[in-house]
């Protein structure tokens, strides 16, 4: 696997960044009364994914990197629930969130691959 100099070069970061941008666009369509509820939670969770991947990368220590990636993974799984809430509360249709759900799952798969790579490099 290639050696990366910056977190933006990581495929898992790139996927999470696209996902974060699409979540921000989705949140713009949420009702105004959700400004400080669901919208805020979704934006924070989506931003947490890229922020944690970047911070872990910057630590230059395998175990710390893995821990930050696990935090990022937790935020992605949290986003699954937020998308379900959007559907359950009638803010979006299941079809409308299906693309976001697909992006989320691909991001999760890529992040899990990165965690496995770090473990193979000595992070156990």
In words, what does this structure look like?
There is one protein chain. By secondary structure, the chain is an all-alpha fold. The chain has a domain of 44 residues. The protein is 77% helix and 0% strand. The longest helix is centred in the last third of the chain and has 30 residues. The chain is elongated, with a radius of gyration of 15 Å. The two termini are 17 Å apart. The mean pLDDT is 94.
Describe the secondary structure blueprint for this structure.
Elements: H1 11-27, H2 38-59, H3 62-88, H4 94-123
Helix pairs in contact: 1-2, 1-4, 2-3, 3-4
Annotation keywords:
single chain; 124 residues; mainly alpha; 4 helices; 77% helix; 0% strand
Taking the sheet with the most strands, its summary is: none
Radius of gyration: 15 Å
* Total of DSSP H or I helical runs spanning 4+ residues: 4
Q: What structural category do the secondary elements indicate?
A: mainly alpha
Report the count of strand segments.
Answer: 0
Bin the strand percentage.
under 5%
Low-confidence stretches: none
Shape: elongated
Q: In whole angstroms, how far apart are the ends?
A: 17 Å
Rounded average pLDDT: 94
Please give the share of residues in helix.
Answer: over 70%
Order of helices and strands: HHHH
């Amino acid at each position: 696997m290639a050696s990366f100099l910056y977190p933006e070069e990581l495929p898992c970061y790139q996927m999470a960044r696209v996902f974060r941008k699409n979540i921000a666009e989705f949140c713009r369509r949420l009702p105004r009364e959700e400004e400080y509820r669901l919208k805020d939670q979704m934006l924070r969770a989506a931003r947490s994914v890229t922020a944690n991947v970047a911070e872990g990368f910057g630590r230059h220590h395998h175990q710390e990197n893995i821990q930050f990636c696990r935090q990022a993974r937790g935020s992605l799984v949290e986003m699954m629930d937020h998308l379900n809430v959007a559907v359950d509360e009638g803010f979006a249709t299941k079809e409308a969130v299906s693309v976001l759900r697909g992006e989320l799952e691909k991001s999760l798969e890529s992040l899990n691959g990165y965690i496995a790579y770090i473990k193979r490099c000595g992070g156990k």
